[in-house]
Amino acid sequence: MAKYETSIKADFDGLLKFIEDGVMNGSDTASLEDKSDFVIGDARCSVRVFERYSFLGGNRLSMNITLFQKGDEDIKLSAITAGGSQALIFKVNTFGEKNFLRTLTDLLENSRYKTT
């Protein structure tokens, strides 16, 4: 498992679309498996679950991305990857998980969106 958390000052809908498009275009095998959106008062939460095939591990990985914003505050972003291990008891190969997460972090680092 690999995890990344940050805050971003941005338009919620624009950032969400940018992430969806960027993750899907970042890998030939990426797919958007499911999504969920909530609005309660002035708070918003969007969850996206992506999958992709890991050639190195020979299996599929998932990445869960959650955006949360209350009012005009910065957007909180949490991304967690899982599924890259080949072992039965201990995780021995997390390269694929870290690489899938790097798709998102590289996307954000090379964009107009500034993390805090």
Which short descriptors sum up this protein?
116 residues, alpha+beta, TATA-Binding Protein, five-stranded antiparallel beta sheet
List the helices and strands and how they pair.
Elements lengths: L1 E7 L3 H14 L5 E10 L2 E12 L4 E12 L4 E8 L12 H15 L7
Antiparallel strand pairs: 1-5, 2-3, 3-4, 4-5
- Roughly what fraction of the amino acids lie in strands? 35-45%
The count of helical stretches stands at: 2
Tell me, what is the CATH class? Answer: Alpha Beta
Q: CATH topology, what is it called? A: TATA-Binding Protein
Beginning-to-end CA distance, first to last residue:
23 Å
Q: Which residues sit in consecutive blocks of at least 5 with pLDDT less than 50?
A: none
Q: Can you count the beta strands?
A: 5
The total tally of domains equals 1
By CATH, the architecture is named: 2-Layer Sandwich
The CATH homologous superfamily is termed: Kinase associated domain 1, KA1
